[in-house]
Amino acid sequence: MKLLHIDSSILGENSVSRILSAAIVAHLKVRGDVEVIYHDLAARPIGNLTGRYLAGQNADVQHDQALQEDLHLGGRVLTEFLAAETIVIGVPMYNLTIPSQLKAWIDHIMVAGKTFHYTHNGPVGLAGDKRVILALARGGHYSPGSPAAGMEHQESYLRAVLGFIGIMEITTVLAEGVALGAHAREKAIASAREVIATL
């Protein structure tokens, strides 16, 4: 199995989403032959989309060295994504949504003609043969039924964007309330590990 492992937290070893994503990958590796490609988007961020990048995909646009490198990186990101059978993504919640580093990566895999295309009946996803496991960490509580549920734009956004490109097999491993004290953090991590054991 080809597995793409993405981390996006800026907190390094203190990151709960990194702890969970690593545990998920370790669990999957024990269960079979797994080839892993890993990217730390905080340590080596992918640039935001630019007009030059989009224009540079046309053959008649002159490329300088910087643009060539940008296009090469974007092409590699897309190729790795398309080749992966399973994608594990470590996702902290920052300001009610996902890190900007992860959004930049998503922008490079949302490519018309590659991961989706438009029809008269609306968009159709082309990447539905993949499984995605989201390792989600949140400082507070935003799950359905909580007072802040309406402000959750982390999991809901990821499910929407992945669904747009055809991916419906999405599993979430969630640790909530990790900023509410050491006990709450450890309890949330332990609960998430129980879910990982069932994957």
UniProtKB/TrEMBL annotation:
Signal peptide: none annotated. Its EC number is 1.6.5.-, 1.7.1.17. GO terms for molecular function: electron transfer activity; FMN binding; oxidoreductase activity, acting on NAD(P)H as acceptor; oxidoreductase activity, acting on NAD(P)H, quinone or similar compound as acceptor. Keywords: Flavoprotein, FMN, NAD, Oxidoreductase. SUPFAM superfamilies: Flavoproteins. Its cofactor is FMN. Quinone reductase that provides resistance to thiol-specific stress caused by electrophilic quinones. Also exhibits azoreductase activity. Catalyzes the reductive cleavage of the azo bond in aromatic azo compounds to the corresponding amines. This is FMN dependent NADH:quinone oxidoreductase. It comes from Gluconacetobacter sacchari.
